[in-house]
Amino acid sequence: MKAVFLCSAAVLLACSAGLCFVPLCHLLAFEFALVMTLPASFVGAAVGMKASDLSPDHVGQAMVRALLWSLLLSPWALIPITLNMFRVKNCNYTDGLMFYFLVTEVSLLVAAWVGVALGHLVQRRRWLWFTGFFLGSLIPPLWRLWYEPPVDAFSLFVAYFPGPIYDEVISVGDRVLASRVEDILFAVMLCALSACKGPSKRRWLWAALSIAGMVGCRVMTNKLQVHRSAEQIADALGRTESTDHFVVHGPSEWDQQKWERLLVDLEFAYEEDLAFFMEAPKKPIEVFFYKDAVQKKRLLGAGRTQISKPWQGAIHLHHPRVGDSITIHELAHAFSVVWSRGPIYLPRNLFVLPIMGLVEGVAEGAEWAHGRLDLHQWASAMQQAKPLPSISTLMSGVGFYLKNASVSYTRCGSFVNFIRYNEGLDTAKTLYEEGADGMGRLPEWEAKWNALLSSQELSAEALEHARMRYDRPSVFHKVCAHEIAALRSRRGTSKLEKAYQINESILHFIPGDLDARMFRIRYLHQLDRTDEALKEAIALGHDPKAGAVWRRKGRLYEGDLRSLQSDYAGALEAYNSLELGAFERDEARNLHVRKAALRRIEEGEQVGVMMLELLTNPKLTQNQDDYLALTDTFVMQAPYDPLAWYLRGRCHQNRREMEMAVQNYEISLDLGLDDEALRYESLYRIAAYAFEQGRFEEASAMYGEMAQRDDLMLERGERFELERWSRRAAFFGERLSGGGEER
After folding, report:
1. 229-341 in CATH: which number?
2. Which sign, positive or negative, has the C-alpha torsion 395, 396, 400, 402?
3. Rounded CA gap, 90 and 493, in Å?
């Protein structure tokens, strides 16, 4: 036994030491525990078989011996990964231990008891039997992943697969615990059945009790929806509707108008994707709508990540809204079956693994616009901002995941769109269908694509914004990815004091985290610790390592805090430093209004002080009634000032009083609102309200007119989205206003 124990300990030590150098698995967290289930299972089987040899006639005694050896073996894997804490930061060692014992240790124990059962049932080729049993245990979860909607899986030895890698928050819930209890009871049942030799009533009673316990646990796991089918998910959602091209499941509590509009929006997305693929799927697409990420995580296994399974012809979306471009993206995955071959309907590399660069590139290429720029412009901006991996790297099996998701998705989307519209539909279809076999011309295509990107005209502001947007690590290279993601999630749902403390914890683990530094400024501001907030804002605004976009955020906050302290000269200096370089419309709008307020103060107008109070006082913006009262006073004192009406429109919009908001926006435009960012928002809100009210023809004309205006300083992405909204409104008019036959 000593030799078996030492060899098993050596295997665990070696595997743990090896994982210390594998990104995402190099700290004590979920991924480490998950990967360690593989060596732990075979180590457990070894000690279980040895225990059965030492107690050939007493299964219970062998189980106790296997349990003790499992407990003595499990700490060995913790030694290297714990020592690795001196090299790699661990943010929550306690949670890591919990994952290790729940995932790895339980798998080791289950394997040990399965080894005990095999040791009593078979005498020859035990390892062949166990290997077959191990591989066989993977068939049910893999079958469910393939044929059923859920993207998470529970397995006897491999414990729990949590689903998409981009869902960074992983927690132990009731289903994981129930599944692990079920695994333990299954192993106990096997041992009990292996002991049923001869007429011993005691052994048969033990076997009967273990079977009863297993059946009872199975009933419990079914109630907890550990294993979910499409029918169970549809029943849990509560409502099913059908259209020309879809079968849609969603929450029964949604009202009829919401259902009606979401169904029409799906049909519009269908038309948009059809224009890209030029061929439609042969069967209706199944759509699952979830009310929020929490419900989706519970029923599907994916929280914030939207999901499509092309081979099933199904997509899964949470919190859907009319106009979400993600609908076109996910629907494109379902459309992609017309460009691919079965059985998985995905492009594959030489190792028969999906080429995710093509999979996501097609969906991004169909979706196309992201914010102010289109994908070609974003890809060009990021390429000019920093060195990036080649398309060949992103089209490999792992390269796609090793970069930040935004980088991989955007570059692949731009490239696939280039192939589709520059090399032709047949070329794009052949590339997707053949996968690795169709990439012989990849260097030639990449050279042409790079030439196209080099020809894109971009402002310095767009380049700086791209640097911030894409200069983020992938999940494989983040510090304590799951722990920090969990802290950010808790921060967003906590009260002010608690949220501040959680944010400080994030900064403790990642001292230079720019997002957390900005939240620190906001929380200090809201806690009336203005001097501290100002100090932090100045530090961020002048930090050369922060990047231009984050420095701008710091300087804007510095101006706001100086305004609150009546240091108008200092505030104006901060705002003036930002006059050049504003790219996002939110920043340009905020800067314009603040500088306008300071100009009024400089001219001796009291309304300027009132404007700054509206813009910079967090207590006022949190109390909408006081905010509205102050905007009313502003309008009364300056009835011909377009900014007064604009700010009151913003206040009504925040109060969800859209009719009043639109009236104020229209007055501000009539009075000559002079900033393009403010005009853009005002016109956009007016068009959106017309759409919301069902005046689709009017909304279509408004969006179309906006797309043609030169005074709004539109970028290509904005123009594309406005044109798409114009088409969407016209489509809704045909479907919901009796303007034409259904297509």
Report:
1. 3.40.30.160
2. negative
3. 24
Are 349 and 396 in contact by the 8 Å Cβ rule? The answer is yes
Cross-strand partners of 160:
154
Contact 391, 412 (CB under 8 A): yes
Whole-number Å distance between alpha carbons of 647 and 641 = 10
Q: Look at residue 303 and give its three-state secondary structure.
A: coil
DSSP for 35-60, please give it: HHHHHHHHHHHHHHHHHHHHSTT-HH
Separation CA 473–CA 404 (nearest Å): 5
**What does the block give as tokens for 709?**
């205006």
Question: For position 621, what pLDDT does the model report?
Answer: 64
519-525, long-range: CB < 8 A, 24+ apart:
519/491, 521/554, 521/557, 522/557, 522/618, 523/496, 523/499, 524/500, 525/557, 525/560, 525/561, 525/618
CA dist., res. 729 & res. 701, Å (int): 9
| pLDDT value of position 739 | 44
Q: Tokens in use for 624? A: 């909408």
Rounded distance, CA 14 to CA 5, Å?
14
Q: What is the pLDDT of residue 201?
A: 66
**Predicted pLDDT of residue 535:** 95
Q: Are 475 and 24 in contact (CB under 8 A)?
A: yes
Of 82, 237, 19, 229, the residue nearest 145 (C-alpha)? 229
Q: Give the Å distances, CA to CA, from 437 to 226, 376, 502.
A: 39, 26, 50
Q: Which amino acid is at 429?
A: K
pLDDT at residue 198, as a whole number: 58
- What phi, psi does 248 have (nearest 5°)? -120, 130
Dump the DSSP string for 543-574: -TTS-HHHHHHHHHHHHHHHHHTT-HHHHHHH
Token code pair at residue 229: 């089918």
**Helix, strand, coil tally for the chain in percent (to 5):** 70, 5, 25
Q: Is residue 616 within 8 Å of 534, Cβ to Cβ?
A: no
Report residue 600 as tokens. Answer: 């009024």
Q: What is the dihedral of CA 272, 278, 284, 287, to 10 degrees?
A: -40
* Residue spans per domain, the chain: 2-225, 229-341, 346-466
Distance CA 381, CA 374 (A): 11
Q: Token pair for residue 728? A: 């969407």
> Residues of the chain whose pLDDT is less than 50?
739-743
Provide the terminal-to-terminal Cα distance of the chain, rounded to the nearest Å. 74
Q: Which of 50, 305, 279 is nearest to 165 (CA)?
A: 305
Query: Are 685 and 653 in contact, with CB atoms under 8 Å apart?
Result: yes
Interatomic CA distance for residues 144 and 441, integer angstroms:
38
Strand-pairing partners, residue 244, are: none
The DSSP H or E segment spanning 418 is helix 405-418
Tell me how far apart the alpha carbons of residues 480 and 685 are, in angstroms, rounded to a whole number: 40
Q: Where do runs of H (alpha helix) occur along 577-656?
A: 585-602, 606-616, 618-622, 624-637, 642-654
CA dihedral sign of residues 694, 695, 700, 705: negative
Cα angle 360, 326, 439; round to 5 = 15
* Euclidean distance between CA atoms 534 and 544, whole angstroms: 18
Q: Per-residue pLDDT tens for 573-598?
A: 999 988 777 888 888 888 899 998 89
Rg (CA), the chain: 30
pTM above 0.85, yes or no: yes
Contact 298, 336 (CB under 8 A): no
